[in-house]
Design a protein that fits this description.
Length: 166
Amino acid sequence: MGFKLAGLMAAILVTVLGLGYWYYNSSQATIATLRENNAQLEVAVQTATDNLKTMQVDVARLNELNLGLQNDLKKAEEYGDDLRAKLREHNLTALAIKKPALLEGKMNGATANLWRDITSDTGGNGDKPLPSWLQSVPPGTGDQDSSQTREDNSTDSSSSEASPAG
């Protein structure tokens, strides 16, 4: 009976040692996996921190740009208010009836300047000279002889020329 008990004890000892060996190897594998996961998490945290810092810089820059845009909008609104006030002061309809050539010259000049500004703002050459059909109007004189000195290619339907009968 002593041998049976010794054999049973040896079998239990071998089983406990086998379980201990398996537990050790399993624990080491789990530790290795956890180390890899920890390294990945540290990289993820560093990336998130860098992204957060970048976003904070971007927010600060966007706030500055937003303030600049708000200031530009305020200036544009003030300019629009100024233009509306000027338009209320001047009766363009009466001026167009009394001095159509003067108003035509001013409007054509302003339109040409606007197109030059748009061309310049969109990357074109804003130094393009005035078109040949647009006459320069000296200050205060008006465009007195606009229909005699240039070819009439306007779309102005308010003036009509009588053709000779015949």
